[in-house]
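Thread title: Can someone regenerate the structure for this chain?

I was given the following input by a collaborator and told the matching structure tokens would be attached. They weren't. Posting the sequence so someone can regenerate them.
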Amino acid sequence: MRRRVLLVLVLFSAALAGSEQPPLAQAVDSVGMTVSDLDRSIEFYSRVLSFEKVSETEAEGAERERLQGVFGLRTRTARMRLGEESIELTEFLAPKGRPFPPDTRANDRWFQHIAIITGDMERAYQLLRKHKVRHASAGPQRLPDWNKSAGGIRAFYFRDPDGHFLEILSFPADKGDPKWRRPTDKLFLGIDHTAIVISDTDASLRFYRDILGLEVLGESENYGPEQERLNNVFGARLRITTLRAASGPGVEFLEYLAPGDGRPYPADEKANDLIHWQTRFRGTSAARAEQDFRKFRSPFISTGVVQRSIIVRDPDGHAIQFTEQ
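Best answer:
Regenerated them for you:
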């Protein structure tokens, strides 16, 4: 009798284990942004930041319109790679969208950037100065040692030709992915993460952790003069949460505990506007993704699954694209 009970328990446990689904998102494939002049952006990212152009495509038609939520579109997209990570730059030949808001601050909730790793912050900063990039920080900042999660990290915010925020980042020996410490003669190594400003960490965790299946790897609370000068936001106090899929760059939440004057994501934002970014995930089932997003009541940009992809918004309005691999 005892053996029979044990056998039933074993079979029941196996059935439960078999019913568990893998994470919806298996990888962060790339981070996309809308640009006004693709040729100019390709030149900037390749000449200044050492990205390599992998491909270029042109798209139009009803399916693309249904995916991106923009009628009458025609786009050019270049995929650019740095190390093991990629970005996608998309120019809308038609219709043109709105320019980057010139008064954007780092605590506005449409803020997003990619963090590019360098092994030599001083040389990287001087190269950016040589190419006359626009500062978004006062200069490179070293985060203080009292902050156990971030102490010793050096970072600098700047802008690309369209106004998108970018970051160069260097880790001390005890922090960051070990791959960033491999011997190399390259100045820029890859993309560690994309950072997004959010209003509520718990709400964002329900979307990125509970729906997409990303794993939380770390949390910290950052404040002080170095953080203020990095973000160029007086009185900045941030709750920072880092998540990752099985592969690809991470996703970093920036919740501003102070100041509380960051503006919400524009409700009428479209994919052809220059503030538009898309974090692009890959997974095994677009149908499952659509079902889960509808249960979560995510705002849809796409009409549904189109060409094995779907685009929705997270709780703060940031666009994410899920593609069945």
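Residues 2-19 form the longest helix (18 residues).
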